[in-house]
Write a structure and sequence with these properties.
This protein is of the alpha/beta class and about 325 residues long. The protein is built from 10 helices and 18 strands. Helix 3 packs across helix 4, helix 3 crosses helix 9 and helix 6 runs parallel beside helix 7.
């Protein structure tokens, strides 16, 4: 089969489109003939060696296609339960940036005909993550306000889609006016340019007191403003720190405003099913930025690292 593999850590130039052995399924595993896969920041970090993984390694967490030898359309849940822990395709074992992948039978789910392979490949990792943040951790209610930093990223666009599907009102931020305009087209109630606007002051004004839930995945650059943007008793849910892991603590804001802070990583099978139900019903749809042929993985990685994308970058696999 053809696959994108890395043999060493480094920049996009270490990606190789090459022949690789067909996967050999283990007990209770199946092979999926992939038609689409998506690119996540996780793939970039693994390629860079953060964390370093055994080589050669096929990247890719998300994918959709056919069960091998059948016409059954399936989508893959990238979070694999293993010895009481969740492992991830493309990090802990070979992933989906290939023509074939072997996964546990429990990781594949029937894909309705009306959901394209590209959309199916775009949603799993980020929608499962956002669903766990908003629903499982933050217990989002339909009449509440949500603040989402950095609209355009996969998790941020997923959080916007899920929050709107659940009836919440959403404020999104970006440094790009173009991305803010696109977010309004996807249902964002209010948009703020976080380089020009005083985000905490504007959020408190818009929401009459502060956001009920803050989706925090940026870290050092936004943490102090996240604490200042939450209403008294609000919830801040953290799934990442792309700008750095050591923000100013501002601990006084936590106890003065009696804030709840939740860490959230990936999701459970129930989180995946909850997100998938919203997608399959057409209530929450992934934003697809660009579709590349698999052999153009280097260009796809370069686009993601530049940060110009809005939504998910997807690979089409022949």
């Amino acid at each position: 089969m053809k696959a994108i593999r890395i043999h060493e850590d480094g920049g996009p130039d270490v990606l190789r489109y090459e022949d690789a052995p067909d996967p050999e399924p283990g007990p209770d595993e199946v092979v999926v003939e992939l038609r689409a896969a998506s690119l996540n920041h996780l793939d970039v970090w693994i390629r860079q060696g953060k964390p370093s993984v055994p080589k050669p390694r096929i990247l890719g967490a998300d994918g959709a296609g056919f069960l091998a030898g059948t016409k059954e359309r399936v989508v893959i849940n990238p979070g694999l339960a293993h010895d009481g822990h969740v492992t991830v395709l493309g990090e802990h074992r070979d992933g989906t940036h290939a023509q074939l992948v072997a996964v546990p039978r429990t990781a594949v789910h029937p894909l309705p005909d009306h959901v394209s392979f590209e959309d199916a490949a775009a949603f799993p990792l980020v929608f499962e993550t956002a669903y766990r943040m908003l629903v499982t951790k933050a217990r989002l209610q339909g009449d509440e306000w949500v603040l989402v930093w950095g609209i355009g990223s996969g998790v941020a666009t997923a959080a916007l889609a899920i929050a709107k599907a659940l009836g919440a009102r959403v404020v999104v931020t970006s440094s790009s006016d173009e991305k803010l305009e696109r977010a309004r087209g996807l249902g964002a109630d209010e948009t703020l340019n976080h380089e020009r606007d005083d985000v905490p002051a504007r959020v408190r004004e818009i929401t009459a007191g502060g956001a009920d839930v803050v989706v925090e995945h940026v870290g050092e650059a936004t943490w102090a403003r996240s604490l200042a943007s939450a209403r008294e008793g609000g919830r801040i849910v953290v799934c990442g720190a792309t700008s750095g892991p050591n923000p100013p603590a501002s601990l006084h804001r936590v106890w003065w405003r009696e804030l709840e802070i939740h860490g959230s990583t990936m999701g459970t099978e129930a989180d995946f099913r909850g997100a998938f139900e919203l997608v399959a019903a057409g209530r929450a749809l992934p934003a697809v930025d660009t579709v590349f042929p698999l052999q153009e993985a280097r260009a796809a990685h370069e686009r993601l690292e530049r940060g110009g994308q809005f939504g998910k970058i997807v690979f089409r696999i022949e």
